[in-house]
Each structure stands twice: as structure tokens, then as C-alpha cells.
Amino acid sequence: MIMKLSSKSCPNVASLTRAFSNLSVVRDISKAPKRPPTAFANYVKEELAGTADRKVPIKEYMVELGQKWKLLDDSKKQPYLSKYDKDNAKYKQEMEAFKAKLGPEGLREYINKKHEAKQAKQEKALKKLHRAQRDPNMPKRPMTSFFVFCKEFRAENASKLPEKITEQSQYLSKLWKEMSESQKQRYIDEYNTAKEKYTRDMDNYNKSNHN
Questions:
Q1: CA distances from 86 to 46, 97, 152, 205 (A)
Q2: What residues are annotated to bind DNA (predicted)?
């Protein structure tokens, strides 16, 4: 005779069912609440939305946006900071509810999964770093047009620069921001030429390493 188990006949059935249900949620970390974008990330998103026709490469433009953010007045930063604070408060509430739903066993599983994912990401980054450090023949990434400008300006106008590195960066960023597109163009061209060479060199490097 086969007995049909129920939560009444076996109190552990209900708890086990809940535990397995919680663990199934944990196995997919993507179901956890997502951290909100930082104030700077929201600023970048807004800036990118209005520059679809930009000529500057995205990587270089991100460097430029970083410098612009540093120079931005606190009053202009405040809307982005306020949005982040509001979104972060909501995230914390959702995260607490998510953890409470998991229960002790589910929470341990979730923490382990997060740790494994973080460790895998770090290992991947370390492998990439070690590969670059291990092989001196690997082509070096070219400087962005902004850094080409900085290098040239420092070489030709060292006496005009502030003593502190942070102040130098702010000063150079301000100069770059005030330059017209035509003034920036030769630095952009230099970067694009160097980038094309880097791409070719990397292709040859990868081919030689796979042979």
C-alpha cells in the first residue's frame, strides 16, 4: 500500500517543498534585485543619448565624460545623486524582501552562487592581465585622442601646468572641452591610425599564438 504524503501527515513535506522552491529561485542569480546605476552611470546614459552623431570613439568619449563629470558643479550633479539615492533605497528594500523569501538555506545558496560568479569574473580578469604581463610581445593599446593631446601639451607647455596631478588633469580636461571639433580632429585621426595598426598587430599576434 502506497501512502500519499501531505503536509498534515508529514509536517516536513511543506518545509521541504518551500526549501526546494527557494533553491530553484537562487540557482538563477539574475532573479535577484539589480543594483541601480550610479549617479555617474545615469549621467553617461543621458549624455550618450544626445550624441548619436559623435565622431569621437566610444572609449575615448567615456574618458572625456569622466573628466566632465569631475568638473561638473555640485548643483548639476545633484539630480543624478538624488535619483541614485532614491533607486538605491528601493533596491535595498527589494533585496531585504528577496532574502526573507529565500529563508536561511536559500540565502546560503544565494551567497555561494554570488561568490562563485564573482570569483569566476575575477579569474577571467586575472588571466587576461597575466597574459598581458607574461608576454611582452603583445601589442599595446593606443592612447586615446585626449591622452595624445595631454602628452603633447605636457611636453610643450610643462611650465603652464599646475603642480598637482589632479589639478593638471582638470586643467587639461577643461582645455580639451573648450577645443572645437576641428582642433580635436588631428588627435582623433592620430588615435584612429594607431587603433587600426593595433587591430592589425593583434590579429597577427593572435594568429601566431594559435599556430
A1: 18, 17, 43, 48
A2: 33-99, 139-206
For the chain, list the domains and their CATH numbers. 32-104 (1.10.30.10), 145-209 (no CATH)
Question: pLDDT tens digits for 29-78?
Answer: 567 888 999 999 999 888 887 665 556 667 777 888 888 888 888 898 99
